[in-house]
C-alpha cells in the first residue's frame, strides 16, 4: 500500500483489509443501486415491493446497531447479568410490534409515521409534532452509532483521535444515503445483516473452541452463596477437556457475586452512590433497605423502555411500509425476530470471555474501555495461532463497521425522509415536483448527517448501549402510545394523541438529557470541563437515589403518563373524533382481500397522503 | 353519525362487522401478549424472591442466566409463530364469512 507509513505504524494489515473491504462493498452497492433509484417512491419506500426475505434481513441489518454488536458485549462485561435484559428485550420487543401494530399500520398505507399521524386524525398540525419526534429519537440513536464509529477507527488506527473516526464515517455514509435513498440501502442492509451474523458467530466459536465454552466461562465466576471449591467443581464438570483459565480481576471490575447475579452494578449504581455519600456506619443499613427494591424498579423500567420502545422506533417502522401488504408485514416481523434472536445469543459470550481473559479493559475509559471487547478479544489467540487472531479481529471489525454503517444509514433515511417528505414536500412546498423533492432529499441528508456527526463528537464518555436505551425510552413514551392507541381505540382525538405524545416524549427526553449531562460532568477528560456546571446534579441525586433511577430509566412513569393523558384528553374532546372513523378503522383492521383500501383512497383523494 | 362514504348498507361497512373484526383480533393479540408478559415480568420477581433457586447451576450457567440469555429467544419465536398462524386463519375466516 502506498499510504504514508507513519500513519499506518501500529495498524494490523488483516484488520485493516477486512474493514476496508466492508466499507468498499457497502459504498459500491450504494452507488450501484443509486442508478436504479429513479422515482420519489424508490427513494422513500423502495417502491413498496420488497419481498419478505429481503425485508426481514434488511430490518435486522438496520436494527443490529453498534449497540448490539459492540455495546451489549461491553455492557455484559462491565455489568454482568443485568445487561442481558438489553439483548433480550431488543429482540422480544418485536413481539409487541407484531401483535399490535405491524399489520394494521401497513394496511393504512403511508410513507412515514407522520403521514400516518396526519391521515388517522385528519390533522396537518399533528404531522408537525410527529416529525419532531422522528428527529428527537433519531438523533439520540445516532449518537451511540457515532461513538461506535469513533471507537472502531481508534482501535484500527491506534493514535487516531476519536473525533476523526466519527467525522470520517459520518461523511461517508451521508454521501451514500444522499445518492441511493431507501432502495439503495435496502439491499445494502440485507447483506450487512449476514455480514454481522458471520462476524459475530465465527470468532465466537473459534474463541470458545480455544479458551472454553460459554457455560464453562460463566461457571468460572462464583455465584452468591458459592465458595471457591464449588465453582471449581462446577467448572471441572462443565469442561472436562478444557480447563478455564482466568486472569486476576483489576480493582475497577465488579466482584463475581455481584456480576453474575441479578440486581448487580448496573441497577444499583444510584443506591451505591447515595450510600457512599453517607457516614460509613450508616452505609450497610441503607444498602440493606434500599438496594434490592430500587434495583427491581430499575429493571422493570428498563424492560418497559426496551419492549415498548422497539415498537415505536421510526426508522424500523418506516420499513414496514416497504412490505407489499399486511400479511407480508406480519411474516416479516416473525422472521426479524428469528434473525435477530439468533444474533443476540452471541454478543454476551464476548462479554463473559472478556471478563475472564481481558480484565485490563475494565481500567480503560471512553474508546479504550469495555465497549471495544468484541474487537480486541479475538487477538487473544494470536499468541497460540499467530495470524488467525488478527484475521478474526479483522472480521469483528468488519462486523462493527457493518453495524454502525447500516443503522446510521437507516436513521439518516428516516430522518431525511421526515425532513424532505414531511417538512419540505407537505408543509413548505406541497406543489413541488418529484425532481425537486429528490433534490430536497439530498440536501436534507447532508444537513442531518452534519448535525449527527457534531453530536457524536461529544459522547465519548457515555456507554454505547446505554445511549441506545435512552432512544428507546423516548420512543416508548411517544410513538408507542400513539400507534398502539390510535390503532385500537377509535375514541382517540388529535388533541388527546398530541397531548399524550408530547408530554410523555418530552419528559423522557428531558430525563435522558439530564442523566447524560450529569454523567458527562463526571468525566475526567475535556468533556468534564465543558459540562462541569452540571456537577451539582450528581450531588442532588446522591441524596435522592430513587429520583436518579427514575431519571435514568424514565419509562416506568412516562409511558403510563402518556397513555393516561391520551385517554383523559380524548374523552374531554370526544366531539372531535374524525367523522369517518369507522372507515379508517376498517382500513386498519380488515383483511386486504376485501379491497377496502382502494375504496378509501377513491373517497379521499385529497386525504391521508398517498 | 352520518358517514361521507356512499353505499354503507352492506355488511362490510356495518358497525357489528367492525366490532367483531377488532374484538377477535385484539383478543388473540392480548392472549399472546399476556403469555409473553407473564414470563418477562415474572423473571425479575423470581430473581427478587428466590435468588438462591435462580442461582442454581445448570451446566455452568446459573438458572437465571440460562433462561434470560438463551431460552427466552425460542420462547418468543413460538409465541409469534402461533400468533401468525392463528391471525392469518382469522383473516381468511373473515373473508369467507363475507363472501358467503
- Work out the oligomeric state of the chains in this entry: heterodimer
Described by strand count, sense and barrel closure, the largest sheet of chain A is:
none
- Mass-distribution shape of chain A: globular
N-to-C CA distance of chain B: 28 Å
Let me know the average pLDDT of chain A: 80
The amount of helix of chain B comes to: over 70%
Structural class of chain B: mainly alpha
State the distance separating the first and last CA atoms of chain A: 52 Å
Strand content of chain B: under 5%
Detailed description of the structure:
The complex is a heterodimer of chains A (610) and B (100). With 610 residues, chain A is mostly helical. Chain A has helices at residues 13-36, 40-45, 52-63, 66-79, 85-108, 113-121, 124-156, 162-211, 214-219, 228-238, 256-260, 265-276, 280-310, 314-320, 326-344, 347-357, 373-376, 382-385, 387-428, 434-456, 464-488, 494-522, 526-530, 535-543, 545-552, 555-572, 581-589, 596-603. Chain A has a single domain (13-457, 465-597), classed as Sodium/glucose cotransporter. Helix content of chain A is 75%, strand content 0%. Chain B has one domain. Chain B has a two-stranded antiparallel sheet with strand order 1-2. In chain B, strand 1 and strand 2 form a beta hairpin. In chain B, 31% of the residues are buried. At the A-B interface, helix 5, helix 9, helix 10, helix 13 and helix 15 of A face helix 1, helix 2, strand 2 and helix 3 of B.
Amino acid at each position: 500500500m502506498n499510504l504514508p507509513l507513519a500513519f499506518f505504524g501500529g495498524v494490523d494489515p488483516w484488520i485493516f483489509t477486512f474493514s476496508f473491504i466492508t466499507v468498499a462493498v457497502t459504498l459500491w452497492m450504494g452507488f450501484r443501486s443509486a442508478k436504479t433509484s429513479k422515482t420519489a417512491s424508490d427513494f422513500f419506500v423502495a417502491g413498496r415491493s420488497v419481498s419478505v426475505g429481503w425485508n426481514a434481513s434488511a430490518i435486522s441489518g438496520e436494527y443490529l446497531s453498534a449497540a448490539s454488536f459492540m455495546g451489549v458485549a461491553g455492557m455484559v462485561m462491565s455489568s454482568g447479568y443485568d445487561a442481558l435484559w438489553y439483548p433480550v428485550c431488543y429482540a422480544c420487543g418485536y413481539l409487541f410490534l407484531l401483535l399490535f401494530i405491524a399489520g394494521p399500520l401497513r394496511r393504512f398505507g403511508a410513507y412515514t409515521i407522520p403521514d400516518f399521524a396526519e391521515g388517522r386524525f385528519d390533522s396537518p398540525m399533528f404531522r408537525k409534532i410527529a416529525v419532531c419526534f422522528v428527529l428527537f429519537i433519531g438523533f439520540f440513536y445516532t449518537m451511540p452509532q457515532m461513538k461506535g464509529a469513533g471507537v472502531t477507527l481508534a482501535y484500527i488506527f491506534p493514535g487516531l483521535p476519536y473525533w476523526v473516526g466519527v467525522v470520517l464515517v459520518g461523511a461517508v455514509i451521508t454521501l451514500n444515503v444522499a445518492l441511493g435513498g431507501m432502495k439503495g440501502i435496502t439491499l445494502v442492509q440485507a447483506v450487512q445483516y449476514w455480514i454481522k451474523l458471520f462476524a459475530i458467530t465465527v470468532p465466537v466459536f473459534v474463541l470458545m473452541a480455544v479458551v472454553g465454552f460459554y457455560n464453562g466461562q460463566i461457571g468460572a465466576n462464583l455465584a452468591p452463596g458459592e465458595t471457591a471449591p464449588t465453582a471449581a467443581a462446577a467448572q471441572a464438570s462443565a469442561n472436562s477437556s478444557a480447563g478455564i483459565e482466568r486472569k486476576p480481576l483489576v480493582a475497577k471490575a465488579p466482584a463475581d457475586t455481584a456480576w453474575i447475579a441479578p440486581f448487580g452494578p448496573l441497577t444499583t449504581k444510584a443506591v451505591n452512590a447515595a450510600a457512599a455519600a453517607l457516614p460509613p456506619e450508616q452505609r450497610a443499613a441503607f444498602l440493606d433497605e434500599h438496594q434490592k427494591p430500587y434495583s427491581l424498579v430499575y429493571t422493570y423500567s428498563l424492560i418497559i423502555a426496551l419492549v415498548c420502545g422497539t415498537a415505536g422506533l421510526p426508522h424500523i417502522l418506516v420499513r414496514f411500509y416497504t412490505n407489499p401488504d399486511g400479511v407480508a408485514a406480519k411474516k416479516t416481523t416473525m422472521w426479524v425476530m428469528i434473525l435477530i434472536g439468533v444474533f443476540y445469543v452471541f454478543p454476551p459470550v464476548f462479554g463473559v470471555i472478556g471478563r475472564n481473559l481481558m480484565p485490563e479493559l475494565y481500567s480503560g475509559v471512553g474508546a479504550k474501555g469495555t465497549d471495544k471487547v468484541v474487537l480486541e478479544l479475538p487477538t487473544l489467540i494470536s499468541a497460540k495461532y499467530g495470524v488467525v487472531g488478527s484475521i478474526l479481529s479483522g472480521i469483528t471489525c468488519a462486523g462493527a463497521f457493518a453495524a454502525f454503517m447500516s443503522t446510521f444509514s437507516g436513521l439518516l433515511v428516516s430522518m431525511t425522509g421526515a425532513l424532505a417528505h414531511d417538512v419540505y414536500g407537505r408543509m413548505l412546498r406541497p406543489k413541488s415536483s418529484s425532481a425537486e423533492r429528490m433534490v430536497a432529499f439530498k440536501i436534507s441528508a447532508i444537513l442531518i448527517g452534519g448535525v449527527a456527526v457534531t453530536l457524536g463528537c461529544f459522547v465519548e464518555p457515555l456507554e454505547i448501549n446505554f445511549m441506545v436505551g435512552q432512544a428507546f425510552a423516548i420512543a416508548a413514551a411517544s410513538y408507542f402510545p400513539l400507534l398502539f392507541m390510535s390503532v385500537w381505540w377509535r375514541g382517540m382525538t388529535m388533541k388527546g394523541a398530541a397531548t399524550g405524545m408530547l408530554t410523555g416524549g418530552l419528559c423522557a427526553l428531558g430525563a435522558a438529557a439530564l442523566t447524560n449531562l450529569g454523567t458527562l460532568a463526571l468525566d475526567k477528560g475535556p468533556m468534564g470541563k465543558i459540562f462541569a456546571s452540571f456537577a451539582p446534579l450528581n450531588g442532588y441525586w446522591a441524596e435522592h437515589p430513587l429520583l436518579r433511577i427514575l431519571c435514568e430509566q424514565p419509562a416506568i412513569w412516562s409511558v403510563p403518563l402518556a397513555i393516561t393523558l391520551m385517554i383523559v384528553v380524548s374523552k374531554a374532546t370526544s366531539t372531535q373524533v374524525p367523522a369517518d372513523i369507522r372507515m379508517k378503522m376498517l382500513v386498519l383492521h380488515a383483511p386486504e382481500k376485501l379491497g377496502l383500501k382502494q375504496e378509501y383512497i377513491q373517497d379521499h383523494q385529497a386525504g391521508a397522503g398517498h | 353519525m352520518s358517514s361521507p362514504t356512499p353505499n354503507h348498507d352492506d355488511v362490510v361497512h356495518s358497525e357489528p362487522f367492525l366490532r367483531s373484526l377488532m374484538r377477535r383480533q385484539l383478543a388473540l393479540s392480548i392472549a399472546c401478549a399476556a403469555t409473553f408478559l407473564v414470563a418477562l415480568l415474572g423473571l425479575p420477581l423470581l430473581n427478587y424472591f428466590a435468588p438462591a433457586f435462580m442461582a442454581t447451576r445448570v451446566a455452568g450457567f446459573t438458572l437465571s442466566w440460562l433462561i434470560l440469555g438463551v431460552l427466552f429467544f425460542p420462547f418468543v419465536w413460538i409465541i409469534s409463530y402461533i400468533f401468525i398462524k392463528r391471525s392469518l386463519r382469522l383473516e381468511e375466516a373473515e373473508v369467507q364469512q363475507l363472501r358467503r
